[in-house]
């Protein structure tokens, strides 16, 4: 595994995999049915997407569907590597990507150059992200079901949290839930300017209520329900402090 390319598959259940990537400790997903396979997130540039697509093709020849968990570059700038695959995202994701793509690219090209990683900086600078073309789950709590053949995957928008357009993918028959950046293992949840600190814990509570056995974060190793619950408690504490700050400001 290295920063440019190679990742490794983690076997989570029959036909359900996480893929771990060194760059940003990113975690993507792959779910196999009998007729179709679902790729969850596409990595951060054209080249990284191509590496992921080749790794997927080494596992399965099935027609692909793609789900984007949210419009942050590291999760979706690699979508060009999956031509012809319907790309699902929460209804607000495409607009968020259109509005923020150039600024995200500029910020992270600077980041990679400052870190001495010219290869990744150049690859990102040359990438024009492909927008998702199937908007789903317009309201908090709404569910969109994908039929992969012999297996369904439920896409859920748990409400505003890490962004206003987060989408998670639950594979109920094996109890695996791909949570995007609503959960992060090995790092505190990442609060960008587009995050909803007051609402985030409630969204994670909705994921916990689904009773999965394995929660796959957007960064880091798959988590147990206990670890996911601990992160929920941390987020609830942040929300309480945030509310107190708001009350202070109103005085
Ligand atoms: Zn993110």
Automatic annotation (TrEMBL):
Taxonomic classification: Bacteria, Bacillati, Actinomycetota, Actinomycetes, Pseudonocardiales
Domain of life: Bacteria
A Pfam family annotated for this UniProt entry: Lactamase_B
Residue intervals of the Metallo-beta-lactamase domain: 25-219
Gene3D superfamilies: Ribonuclease Z/Hydroxyacylglutathione hydrolase-like
Extent of the signal sequence: none
Protein name, entry field: Glyoxylase, beta-lactamase superfamily II
């Amino acid at each position: 595994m290295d920063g440019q390319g190679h990742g490794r598959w983690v076997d989570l259940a029959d036909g359900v995999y996480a893929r771990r990537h060194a760059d940003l400790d990113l975690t993507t997903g792959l779910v196999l049915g009998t007729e179709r396979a679902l790729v969850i997130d596409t990595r951060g540039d054209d080249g990284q997407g191509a590496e992921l697509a080749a790794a997927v093709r080494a596992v399965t020849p099935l027609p692909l569907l793609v789900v984007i968990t949210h419009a942050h570059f590291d999760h979706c700038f690699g979508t060009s590597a999956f031509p012809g695959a319907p790309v699902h995202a929460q209804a607000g994701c495409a607009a968020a990507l259109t509005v923020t793509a150039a600024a995200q690219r500029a910020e992270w090209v600077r980041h990679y150059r400052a870190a001495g990683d010219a290869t990744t900086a150049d690859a990102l600078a040359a990438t024009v992200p492909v927008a998702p073309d199937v908007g789903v789950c317009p309201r908090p709590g709404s569910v969109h079901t994908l039929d992969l053949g012999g297996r369904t995957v439920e896409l859920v928008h748990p409400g505003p949290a890490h962004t206003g357009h987060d989408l998670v993918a639950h594979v109920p028959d094996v109890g695996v839930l791909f949570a995007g950046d609503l959960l992060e293992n090995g790092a505190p949840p990442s609060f960008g300017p587009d995050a909803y600190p007051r609402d985030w814990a409630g969204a994670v509570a909705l994921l916990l209520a689904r009773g999965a056995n394995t929660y796959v974060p957007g960064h880091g190793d798959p988590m147990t329900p206990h670890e996911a619950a601990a992160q929920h408690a941390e987020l609830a504490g942040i929300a309480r402090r945030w509310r107190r700050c708001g009350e202070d400001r109103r005085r």
